[in-house]
Specification:
By secondary structure, this protein is an alpha+beta fold. It has 5 domains: 34-108, Sandwich (Immunoglobulin-like); 115-329 and 341-426, Alpha-Beta Barrel (7-stranded beta/alpha barrel); 430-530, no CATH class; 633-797 and 804-888, Golgi alpha-mannosidase II, domain 4 (Beta-galactosidase, Chain A, domain 5), CATH 2.70.98; 921-976, Immunoglobulin-like (Sandwich), CATH 2.60.40. The chain has 15 helices and 51 strands. The strands form 11 sheets. Strands 24-31-32-33-34-43-40-39-36-37 form a 10-stranded antiparallel sheet. Helix 12 packs parallel to helix 14 (497-533) and helix 13 (463-477) packs antiparallel against helix 14. Mean pLDDT is 94; it is low at 1-10. Residues 640-761 form the Glycosyl hydrolase family 38 C-terminal domain. Residues 115-413 form the Glycoside hydrolase family 38 N-terminal domain. InterPro entries: Gal_mutarotase_sf_dom, Glyco_hydro/deAcase_b/a-brl, Glyco_hydro_38_C, Glyco_hydro_38_N, Glyco_hydro_38_N_sf, Glycosyl_Hydrlase_38. This is Alpha-mannosidase.
């Protein structure tokens, strides 16, 4: 016999256990004699002739009699009483062959008359249950089946007809391109008739990993579907991922989408109901700072049932099971905070006080089987058909997603709560589990904006290629980052972790390559277009130094001068064509003996002053009197400086001990902080690897599970040098979890910014670990930070229940006080913890005292035990920047400092002499950014917390006056010359 010690899972109840708990929680024991128990449940079930139901269950078969009303025999019976509009007390007698076993007084109470919209879909995990290609082919097969089932049930009563919601549109788009015309026509007709709905998101995204432009581009197909097939996209589904950026509201609104159904799978990893989630009523109106809003439904449980709600109550199994469980579920919704108690799906934390659900209409998701990537089934429609024949209420409707929202909007819109701001993701820590490919993706996001701008300025429409590259970026940001058991390496099913991560990460590298290719081509085309427009000059060669950011700035440009353009033996000087002044420069020769596989020539570094936004400045290469000076080796005392900052590195401690702002006369580093500035912090946790969903079973109420904390040690200064453009310090350290850590600190002359680069030679390990880089500022708490499609801050609203202990940002955080504003920016690593480091297990207690001015960059981790990579290794780079300015507005300084990382100057080689400078677009409001120039127009984004008026000027175009809503985006049409 099998020992009862062997359980099917680590304490999580299976469906039988969950369902029995629901039965127990929604019924009352009324008789208990000699081992016999009788329980009663008054349920929201109404017959067509005006009676309501009382369910009676007993541990052995009996005859159950509601005296004077109804009776039935068995262990589980339904007794019917005339509908009541006030509590009515009746007598229940339970009898066996010998007579009355027991009796009790029961109270029949008025019940709600529910409308239940059963939304049948398949949750798309691109991977997880099988390798990615296999999963996608299955989803195309599901659409074949959905088409057949819709046609098969076309003559059924309207509420019971099979309807299918395509949760993620990518399979539908692939299907429409891969099926015969007659099938496509049938699909389009069913979509127009409301039997099939294609929702807006192409797949389920970690939206906080997306850039704003990426998010908008991923919805571009909605207009294409309407043009090609005549059906609109009215709603979106956001499944599994527990959170969404505020920019999603604007992106969906711009695509004409008004509704969002979210199903957050907490999986025991998060505690939204301890952070205001118990106050988040549903449905609700989610409003962005712009004023755009969408109507949101979300599955409401802190215990992880998410998109399996309908399956849990039997709607995939059988009519009898649904008849038993669905009324109990509705009763629980109406009478208690959450329908399921603690322990469901693993989380053993406290239950939450919450008001019962107040409406009489429910959105109930169902899948064809109890699994992700499950196909369509006729069972839910069959149950709805029989149900509506049997019962007047609840009324079941086999529905598409938007059916529910239209019903709610018509009846309840004005009484729904409005919530604003970011809906911060509790799963965002997973972004740290693939740090290297994520870094490549974030670099690609920046490069694509610049590449498209340069192509547009060169008169080339690169929209299609840019869209395709963004699609690859977004596929990496899709929420399934690996197999169910990512540490395995099988060829199919949920153990195919090696295959799945290979494909996933290769997509990130391909996206970065595509972006780099497009930028490479854009620079050449831009240079060629300028060369064609210019005349002959006396220079050996020239560069057009282009500033792809919005604001004028002084910054370093790095450009390549090929040997076949100017021989490497020829001394050169760089001249600013605007002023005739010589620009100091530094050269790095590509020696063919060292690099025979790379182009031969000189990498030139120069600081170009005062380049306006979206402008170029011509820099001429002219004969020089002597070769460029070699770098000067400085004392190994760990100090470098420019006009703006003096930076000191403490070799003994292994971090920056000082960043002194010379203009403000102020130290930027908090020397009393727990961690040093830029210090490497390595945490290892005392939890075991290679257990599926282990973190859903682990609670951390103190630091007990923090098995080890270590810092970088044995710092050695490898290089301190001065060139014509600035000073640089390179330090190497040793540390746990890595072979080595290399820190590069750079200051450029004339540039009010400190650049920091960290390279880690990461060792692979399945042990649960995290790497942080600490940045303790001598400042108060942050005042603003960049989000996808918005700006966050301590006074900025967030949707109740948003994650508290970590924050995924785009690129910058700002600190402001009356004397000085400081900005910190990151390129590759989006995750931060503010003020302290928290344990990565619910309820996420802090491990250090709070320090308001400290930013911990959560560079990487492998705390996930399913879905994300089980370990990571290899050389990985993280870049940061720091800037400060007296009296600056935090949002503006944040954007300016981040531009040095995300929008570096571009040097395009030109062969003739066009104008010494040219501005292509400018805006007259300091809070409005031009994010890119595309073939469709000038793309704008506002950082302002209020609506602003902005004038957009372009040579050869009429000045456009645009009203931008708070943190809003817009396109000024008419880019083409």
């Amino acid at each position: 016999m099998t020992s009862r010690l062997l359980q099917r899972s680590l304490g999580s109840p299976d469906y039988d256990g969950i369902r029995q708990a629901l039965r127990d929680d929604t019924s009352t024991p009324v008789i208990s004699v000699r081992g016999l128990e009788v329980r009663v449940a008054v349920l929201p079930l109404f017959t067509h002739d005006g009676r309501q139901a009382v369910r009676v269950s007993s541990t052995e078969p009996l005859t159950h009699v509601l005296v004077g009303v109804d009776s039935a025999s068995g262990s589980d019976v339904t007794l019917l009483v005339p509908e009541v509009d006030a509590p009515r007390v009746l007598t229940l007698e339970c009898r066996d062959d010998a007579g009355v076993v027991g009796s009790a007084r029961i109270t029949v109470t008025p019940q709600r008359k529910w409308h239940v919209f059963v939304v049948h879909h398949s949750h798309l995990d691109i991977g997880y249950t099988d390798p990615q290609g296999t999963v996608l082919r299955h989803h195309l097969d599901y659409l074949d089946a959905a088409l057949r089932l819709a046609e098969e049930t076309a003559s059924w009563p309207d509420d019971a007809r099979f309807r299918w919601t395509v949760e993620s549109s990518m399979p539908a788009l692939k299907w429409l391109d891969a099926r015969p015309k007659d099938m496509v026509d049938s699909f389009a007709a069913l979509a127009r008739a409301g039997a099939i709905e294609v929702t807006a998101l192409p797949f389920q995204l970690h939206t906080e990993a997306c850039s704003t432009e990426e998010l908008h581009r991923q919805l571009r197909f909605t207009a294409q579907l309407e043009r090609r097939f005549g059906f609109s996209t009215r709603s979106a589904m956001h499944t599994d991922v527990p959170g969404a950026v505020v920019g999603l509201v604007d992106a969906l609104s711009a695509a004409g989408v008004r509704y969002l159904a979210a199903a957050h799978n907490w999986a025991g990893r998060s505690v939204p109901y301890l952070h205001g989630g118990d106050k988040l009523t549903r449905p609700f109106r989610w409003r962005a700072p712009s004023g755009n809003e969408i109507l949101v439904w979300f599955t409401d449980t802190p215990h992880g049932m998410a998109y399996m709600e309908g399956n849990t109550v039997g709607l995939t199994d059988s009519y009898d099971l649904a008849d038993d469980l669905l009324p109990r579920y509705l009763s629980a919704l109406a009478t208690r905070g959450y329908p399921y108690g603690p322990g469901t799906f693993g989380w053993q934390g406290p239950d939450a006080p919450k008001e019962p659900y107040e409406l009489d209409v429910l959105h109930l998701r169902v899948q064809g089987a109890h699994a992700d990537n499950a196909g369509p089934s006729i069972v839910p429609a069959t149950i709805a058909r029989r149900w509506n024949e049997q019962w007047a209420y609840p009324r079941l409707r086999s529905a598409v997603n938007s059916d529910f929202f239209e019903f709610v909007e018509e009846r309840y819109h004005d009484r729904l709560a409005v919530h604003e701001g970011d809906w911060t993701d509790w799963w965002a820590d997973g972004l740290g589990s693939g740090a290297r490919p994520l870094g490549y993706v974030r670099r690609a996001q920046s490069a694509l904006r610049v590449a498209e701008t340069l192509h547009t300025l060169a008169g080339v429409d690169a929209t299609e290629q840019v869209d395709e590259a963004y699609d690859k970026v977004a596929l990496f940001n899709e929420h399934t980052w690996g197999a169910a058991n990512p540490w395995e390496d099988a060829e199919e099913a949920g153990d195919s972790g090696g295959l799945q991560w290979t494909r996933k990460s290769s997509g990130a590298y391909a996206a970065q390559d595509d972006a780099a290719d497009l930028l490479h081509a854009g620079v050449r085309r831009f240079g060629a277009a300028l060369s064609e427009s210019g005349g002959e000059g006396g220079a050996l060669a020239s560069f057009a130094v282009f500033n792809p950011a919005t604001r004028a700035r002084t910054d370093v440009v790095r450009a390549f001068l090929p040997r076949d353009v100017v021989g490497v033996e020829v001394p050169i000087a760089l001249v600013d064509a605007r002023t005739g002044r010589t620009l100091p420069h530094h050269e790095e020769f590509v020696d063919p003996d060292d690099w025979p596989t790379r182009p031969i020539g000189r990498h030139i570094h120069a600081v170009v002053p005062d380049v306006s936004g979206f402008s170029y400045v011509r820099v001429d290469v002219v004969p020089g009197e002597s070769q460029a000076p070699e770098p000067v080796e400085l004392d190994l005392d760990g100090v470098i400086e420019n006009e703006f900052y003096r930076v000191a590195y403490d070799v003994r401690e292994g971090y920056l001990s000082s960043i002194f702002d010379k203009r403000a006369g102020r130290e930027l580093v908090n020397g009393d902080a727990a961690a040093g500035f830029g210090q490497y912090v390595y945490d290892q946790y005392a939890t075991a690897p290679h257990f599926n969903h282990l973190s859903g079973h682990v609670g951390a109420h103190d630091r007990t599970l923090l098995g080890d904390r270590a810092i970088g040690t044995h710092a050695t200064i490898k290089e301190v040098r001065r060139t014509a453009v600035g000073e640089k310090l390179v330090v190497e350290l040793r540390g746990k979890g890595v072979d080595w850590i290399r820190t590069t600190v750079e200051l450029h002359y004339g540039v009010p910014r400190l650049d920091l680069t960290y390279q880690l030679a990461k060792q692979g390990t399945p042990a649960k670990e995290a790497v942080f880089l600490a940045f303790p500022f001598a400042a108060g708490p942050p005042t603003a930070w960049e989000l996808t499609g918005g700006v966050g801050g301590p006074g900025v609203p967030r949707v109740p229940g948003s994650a508290e202990y970590m924050l995924p940002i785009r690129h910058w955080i700002a600190f402001e006080d009356p004397e000085l504003t400081v900005a910190w920016a990151t390129l590759e690593a989006p995750l931060v913890q503010l003020g302290t480091i928290h344990m990565p297990y619910a309820p996420f207690p802090p491990t250090l005292d709070q320090e308001d001015g400290t930013v911990y960059s959560w560079a990487l981790n492998n705390i996930w035990d399913t879905n994300f990579p089980a370990q990571q290794q290899g050389e990985t780079t993280f870049r940061y920047a720091v800037g400060s300015e007296s009296g600056a507005q935090g949002r503006r300084l944040g954007a300016a400092v981040a531009a040095g990382l995300t929008e570096p100057f571009v040097g395009a080689l030109i062969t003739d002499s066009p104008a010494s400078e040219e501005t292509y677009v400018s805006v007259d409001h300091p809070d409005v950014l031009v994010t890119s120039l595309g073939w469709d127009g000038v793309r704008l984004q506002s950082l302002a917390a209020e609506p602003v008026e902005v004038r957009v000027s372009r040579p050869g175009h009429e000045t456009a006056e645009v009203t931008l809503p708070a943190c809003g985006v817009a396109i000024v049409r008419g880019t083409r010359q």
